[in-house]
Amino acid sequence: MLRAWALVLALLPGCVTVMDDGDDDISTPPRVEQKKAPEPPSPATPAPPEVAILDLHEEAGADPSLVRIVGTVVNRSNQELGRLNVRIEARDPQGRVLSRVIVSAAADVLPPGTSTTFEASLPRSGSIRDYNAEVMR
């Protein structure tokens, strides 16, 4: 009867048949450990260059319907930066953007430790509380 069950179990997929030949020492097949596949290394992501905007302020312009915004971009990194654009936003007291413009920095290339200026014109409004500028690459 035991051999009949062994035959049935042998026919089931994935089953291991252990035959009892009268010996009390029944051993199981050695356990196979599955090794984890090594995780692929994460791609290196370069840190963004350190760029600062200083002296952002409003100046009088020729057109009274526009406000002229000027500032300075400083390259504090050890890399040469090129083709810098600056996004300037005029905001109301609640922080909502009233107007936005993107301008290029005055210098095409900004070596490490140097600075350049930028300027933009935005529509004048009594609702403007402040300006925000951000360097875009």
Describe, in plain words, how this protein is organized in 3D.
It is a single chain. With 137 residues, the protein is mainly β. It has a domain at 51-136: Immunoglobulin-like, CATH 2.60.40. The chain has one helix at residues 2-11; strands at 51-59, 66-75, 81-82, 85-91, 97-104, 109-110, 115-123, 130-136. The relative contact order is 0.20.
Outline the fold blueprint.
Elements: H1 2-11, E1 51-59, E2 66-75, E3 81-82, E4 85-91, E5 97-104, E6 109-110, E7 115-123, E8 130-136
Antiparallel strand pairs: 1-2, 2-7, 3-6, 4-5, 4-8
Q: Care to count the β-strands?
A: 8
Poorly predicted tracts of residues: 2-10, 42-47
The percent of residues in helical segments reads under 10%
**Proportion of residues in β-strands:** 35-45%
Numbering strands along the chain, what is their spatial order in the largest sheet?
1-2-7
Kindly provide the name of the CATH class of the domain at 51-136: Mainly Beta
For the largest beta-sheet, the strand count, sense and barrel status come to: 3 strands, antiparallel
| Shape, principal axes of CA atoms | flat
Provide the descriptors you would attach to this structure in a database record:
Immunoglobulin-like; 1 helix; 3-stranded antiparallel sheet
Short description:
The protein has 137 residues and is mainly beta. It has one helix at residues 2-11, and strands at residues 51-59, 66-75, 81-82, 85-91, 97-104, 109-110, 115-123, 130-136.
